[in-house]
Amino acid sequence: MMKLILSNFLQRPTRTFVSIMAVALGVVLVLVSVGLCYGQLTDTAERTRRIGGDFLFQPSDASLLFALNSGTLPVRIKEVLEKVEGVEAATPILAKFLADRFHLVFGIDHESFEEVNSSLRFVDGALFTQPFEAVVDTVYSTSNQVRVGDEIEILGHRFKVRGVFVQGTASRVMVPLATLQEINGTPEKATMFFIKGRQGVPEEQVYKRLRDRFKHYKITRTADLQEIMASSTPVFRQFVAAVVFLSVVISFLVILLAMYSTITERTREIGILKSLGASRSYIVQLILKESVLICAAGVTVGFILNYLALQLILANFPTMPVSITLFWKVAAAVLGIGGGVMGALYPALKAAGQDPVKALGYE
């Protein structure tokens, strides 16, 4: 059986190549799209969590995608938050999205940020002390070739780099809160607060007290950020579902057309096989195995192309996070092979049902 399948591949190399590339395209479509989406969510959630604190405090209509929010919270709420029983400290943060650089800038209050945060580690320099100083993470420093003492431009203003910290906390760039408030035109305003609970006080109790005290605000446990962001981000699930569906459709239709054409061209061959005693199940297995081999090759090529595509993306956008889990790698492979097998099923049944006498007389 394998000799017949390999012989067909060699006789129709162009069609085989096109089928393999179509399946590969579906795999790449799933992995790249999902990798970029989940990468952004995972990276944002992890960075936010590592700012410190147990709770994220926002206006009721705020999004967990900080680029969509503005500075609307009065900074003076900090005093009220810290009076809630069980709260150790709170720090305000103003987030500003730089569309041309495709990353966020955080304005932070030096003193209160250090009370809440414990993960910020500097590889060079230290946290800023002057109004127009900034700190950048290692990814930003490497991709933009920026070192301590250099100047960077943010929203039309020059900032001197005071320190470089290990990536994974907050945003790529952080500046003094008061300076960003002035530039943004939102004096004494913040986008959100991070709240640290007092050690020894159950987190659930503090959460309940905050909810009772601030009923018209959004309060989120930082430990739950990734799950909440994945489920509440607008059209995220719909987008992933659409990409998966499109991948399956591509594999299904291409394999269906390729196999249907192959069956038509091999009518006499199938007639000969049946006249020699080949059963219906043998013919079906022959077609389906051929489809599985094509799809398996397509999946392999798809993984290779996915790797090259991600390298190209990261080379041009080094700050772009990508996250492809084992689940999605397996899912992409199953979708590629499954879609191809479903596409080959009808041609296989059609071939198995041919009359050997008519097939032998087919020209």
Task: Give a quick rundown of the structure.
This protein is α+β, with helices and mostly antiparallel strands.
| Major sheet summary line | 10 strands, mixed
Low-confidence spans: pLDDT under 50, at least 5 residues?
359-363
Alpha-carbon distance between the termini?
24 Å
The backbone outline, from C-alpha atoms, is: elongated
Number of domains: 2
Mean pLDDT: 81
Strand content: 15-25%
The percent of residues in helical segments reads 55-70%
Estimated radius of gyration: 29 Å
Number of helices: 13
Could you spell the SSE succession in H and E letters? HHEEHEEHEEHEEEHEEHEHHHHHH
Number of strands: 12
Would you tell me the structural class of the helices and strands? alpha+beta
Folded structure, characterized:
This protein folds into 2 domains: 165 residues, no CATH class; 155 residues, no CATH class. It is elongated and about 90 Å long. The chain contains 13 helices and 12 strands. Helix 1 crosses helix 11 and helix 2 packs across helix 11. The strands form 2 sheets. Strands 1, 3, 4, 5, 6, 7, 8, 9, 11 and 12 form a 10-stranded mixed sheet that branches. The chain has a two-stranded antiparallel sheet with strand order 2-10. The protein is α+β, with helices and mostly antiparallel strands and 363 residues long.
List keywords for this structure.
363 residues, alpha+beta, ten-stranded mixed beta sheet, 56% helix
Please write out the topology.
Elements: H1 2-11, H2 13-50, E1 55-59, E2 73-74, H3 77-81, E3 87-98, E4 103-108, H4 110-116, E5 122-125, E6 133-137, H5 138-144, E7 151-154, E8 157-165, E9 173-176, H6 177-184, E10 189-190, E11 192-197, H7 203-213, E12 217-221, H8 225-232, H9 236-265, H10 267-275, H11 280-316, H12 326-352, H13 356-360
Parallel strand pairs: 4-9, 6-8
Antiparallel strand pairs: 1-11, 1-12, 2-10, 3-4, 3-11, 5-8, 6-9, 7-8
